[in-house]
Amino acid sequence: VAKDGTKRFSLTMQTGQAELLPGKPTTTWGFNGAYLGPTIRAIRGDRVAMRVRNQLGEPSTVHWHGMRLPAVMDGGPHQMIEPGGTWSPHWIIDQPAATSWYHPHPHGNTAKHVYRGLAGLFLVDDPAAAALGLPSTYGVDDVPLILQDKVLDKNGVLREDPKPTWGLMGDQILVNGVYDPFFEVTTTLVRLRILNGSNARMYNVEFADRRRFHVIGTDAGLLAAPVTVDRVQLSPGERLEVLVEFAPRDQVVLRSVAGDNGIDEGDYELLKFVAADQLKPGPSVPQRLAASPRIETPAGARERKFKLSGSDAINGREMDMTRIDEVVPAGASEIWQVQNPVYSHNFHIHEVAFRILDIDGKEPPAYLQGPKDTVFIPRKSTVRLAVQFGHHTDPKTPYMYHCHILRHEDEGMMGQFVIV
Ligand code: C2O
Ligand code: CU
Ligand code: CU
């Protein structure tokens, strides 16, 4: 923290050697280390200043996925950092508590840069959320889980052979970059902040003993009240916060089970939980959570339509860095309809928070009714989103919207909008 109260963070994109398989060094990329990056933490109202250095051999960017900020600070493909260069964005955190993240966004190369290990969490806290008394001791009862899949050969070499349609997708699941991980539970209630940080893989997450757990937050903030479930689905880029109850000596595996979305979703063990003989009593699951009103659109709200075509275009057009596709008035609430005629995709919008109004005319599952920035769109279906745009105007610098299956994003399933 600087004298003027600014919180300063320094990130260096670098290459390194990580032990992704036991005893085998893998050449990887990371922020301030060999693989992944530090968890950044800030409080609503903070002024943050980043210093991002690129020590890779090629240009890249760092995008703050989930952050509400001016377009020039967003870290999309227009804010390239050359090799050896530094980029210093700064902004005031003005959004509710949420689990956000950061990752590269160079147009055409995002898949490769993320797959090699460049990603980290960016947690936003706020006083209203803090007053709920949720578990919040980082790494003890407030635990991030970054889910990623890799192909590692027997020598530990990270393979980059893209699969047809989906691109880089592996059968080796890592959690926070760790192979065959376990977590020692020491409290009766644990909060997990789950990020699907994979390039394309979907996860259908449940406990092997089918215990129920409580979803408390979606991408962009807390739900109005906890929703009890026995399984959740996360597509790439999505986050969920959940609360899980444990008893002494519990041993249970968190796993992902096969689904039917047409994306190769297998059965995988994610993480083993091993509870101590005695657990420190945690808080109970609260009845109510977010105080912030849900995102509504006024009568007569502007409606925009997007049709995902093939694996590389939106409304029949591939991404063009020089074309502005949509112009949105500052502070607007709009309905965005996204139609997906063929394969499964998902859809992420920079800068905004949205609520899923419906999926093929039906209400989304209760646990997905919180504020979001990324939504899964099953094949042959249409979603409607109530989108709340921010107030940072800039007629020249666009934000992106795109499929977060990174190969599709790289191939051009992305568009640009400005806020004016
Ligand atoms: Cu997570 Cu445009 O990205
Ligand atoms: Cu984003
Ligand atoms: Cu896609």
UniProtKB/TrEMBL annotation:
A molecular-function term among this protein's GO annotations: copper ion binding
Domain of life where this protein originates: Bacteria
Domain Plastocyanin-like intervals: 13-128, 164-247, 308-420
Keyword vocabulary terms for this entry: Metal-binding, Oxidoreductase
Metal-binding listed as a keyword: yes
The family this protein is said to belong to: Belongs to the multicopper oxidase family.
Record protein name field: Multicopper oxidase
Phylogenetic lineage: Bacteria, Bacillati, Actinomycetota, Actinomycetes, Micromonosporales
